[in-house]
Inverse folding.
């Protein structure tokens, strides 16, 4: 296989090295293209552009493979915990028991929010979306810790990461409590990360709340499945904002906002709405909806199906499908929408339209059903996604800063606007 690519421009040939990753992925290194030729590449949506090399997450969309630091997602979901995955992503290796205990202790000792941050919530309208509160409060956190914002001081970065991981769950729970007018519930550090999250969401001062171990494990698995997904929109935002040496809280705040968009983190909500629509308006018959999703004369799509990278079954969806049944059993919830989802999946996977286009269930197809069964409100689904994605954002940000060759992210453009023209005074326009 060639290790050089040739580009011919105006009759002149230029050679560029082909870079090969550890899994055999190949990319043309055009970093000197503009210097050599005066030309740039044009790639809207960065569909063909590698913005960095990374040691964190490997995805093979054709074969449906996802690995964190080399470990398959299936093994992670079965054997690990969210905090261990956070350690793995950030530190680059699986922890020993001592290392995990120290890490867990550090995260748990940072769960409380400064009381003045608690008061910040009062400034939001009651109907404020939890994602807006999450990004605002996350940005504001930097003002409480001005002495630990140097991106090149490893100790300062470490303590900031631990604070963010710990406080994110508290902020998420407070944003929900505030939106329903309930009192904030302080964290309980003897609980696991997922158990504490459920406690802060569902306990009230009026009643004790027992964490259900099935739900606790389900939340932990959901968080692990979302922990990283290489250079997606919010992770690229995290790296890009960080590349200006903006502090880590500002970078996380921006990443949360990027994830909020319905093209990125919001599809699990759309799946739930679609399943209820099928139940209520199509007598539970998914095949009629499937026909609509194939019909190009409307904008309807089968939500939770298809993916830019996966052209095979999303490995996270496979894990979630199995877990959905366990959760529904544990909560004694209605399985009507699960049955509709499974029927939809079965017929879609045999339908020529979906087969030809390699459209398979993605992570969002089943996650919404689980959140719904647990009683988590729809506008919190993307907040849960942010919580899970946090270790990925933090580790990608740190990887950027650890690279001595890293530069500020600054794409170019091809200008297509007006050519030079003289200014026209206002009375002559
Ligand atoms: N239902 C029906 N048709 C679909 C679907 C779908 N869910 N997804 C793709 N297609 C069709 C397109 O109409 C297109 O058909 P054509 O070739 O005849 O024009 C073809 O499949 C290719 O689709 P694109 O939109 O070009 O694929 P792209 O990679 O740009 O989009 C996306 C991927 C956005 C995920 C798309 O599959 C989609 O809209 N899915 C539904 C929404 C969804 O589930 N999003 C969650 C993604 S996972 C995540 O973000 C965590």
């Amino acid at each position: 296989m060639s290790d050089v690519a040739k580009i011919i421009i105006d009759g002149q040939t230029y050679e560029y090295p082909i870079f090969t990753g550890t899994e055999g992925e190949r990319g043309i290194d055009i970093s000197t293209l503009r210097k050599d030729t005066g030309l740039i590449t044009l790639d809207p949506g960065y569909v063909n552009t590698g913005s960095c090399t990374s040691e964190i997450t490997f995805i093979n969309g054709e074969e449906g493979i996802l690995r964190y630091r080399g470990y398959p997602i299936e093994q992670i979901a079965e054997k690990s915990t969210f905090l261990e995955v956070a350690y793995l992503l950030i530190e680059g290796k699986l922890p020993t028991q001592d290392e995990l205990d120290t890490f867990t202790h550090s995260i748990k000792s940072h769960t409380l929010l400064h009381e003045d941050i608690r008061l910040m919530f009062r400034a939001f309208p009651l109907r404020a979306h939890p994602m807006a509160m999450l990004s605002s409060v996350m940005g504001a956190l930097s003002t409480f810790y001005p002495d630990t914002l140097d991106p090149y001081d490893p100790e300062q970065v470490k303590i900031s990461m631990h604070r963010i991981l710990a406080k994110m769950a508290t902020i998420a729970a407070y944003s929900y409590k505030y939106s329903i007018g309930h009192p904030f519930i302080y964290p309980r550090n003897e609980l696991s990360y997922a158990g504490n999250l459920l406690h802060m969401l569902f306990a009230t001062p009026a009643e004790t709340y027992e964490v259900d171990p099935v739900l606790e494990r389900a939340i932990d698995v959901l968080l692990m499945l979302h922990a990283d997904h290489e250079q997606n929109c919010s992770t690229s935002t995290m790296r890009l904002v960080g590349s200006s040496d903006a502090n880590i809280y500002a970078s996380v705040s921006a990443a949360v906002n990027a994830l909020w968009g319905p093209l990125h983190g919001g599809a699990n909500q759309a799946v739930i709405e679609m399943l209820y629509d099928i139940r209520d308006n199509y007598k539970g018959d998914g095949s009629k909806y499937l026909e609509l999703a194939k019909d190009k004369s409307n904008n309807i799509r089968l939500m939770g199906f298809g993916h830019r990278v996966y052209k095979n079954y999303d490995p996270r969806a496979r894990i979630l499908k199995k877990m959905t049944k366990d959760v529904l059993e544990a909560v004694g919830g209605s399985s009507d929408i699960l049955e509709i989802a499974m029927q939809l999946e079965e017929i879609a996977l045999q339908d020529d339209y979906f087969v030809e286009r390699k459209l398979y269930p993605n992570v969002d197809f089943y996650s919404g059903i689980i959140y719904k069964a647990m009683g988590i409100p729809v506008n919190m689904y993307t907040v849960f996604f942010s919580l899970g994605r946090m270790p990925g954002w933090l580790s990608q940000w740190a990887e950027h800063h650890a690279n001595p060759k890293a530069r500020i992210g600054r794409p170019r453009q091809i200008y297509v606007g007006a050519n030079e023209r003289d200014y026209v005074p206002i009375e002559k326009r």
Remarks:
- The CA atoms of residues 164 and 298 lie 43 Å apart.
- Residues 264, 267, 293, 301-308, 357, 359, 362-364 surround acetyl coenzyme *A (CB under 6 Å).
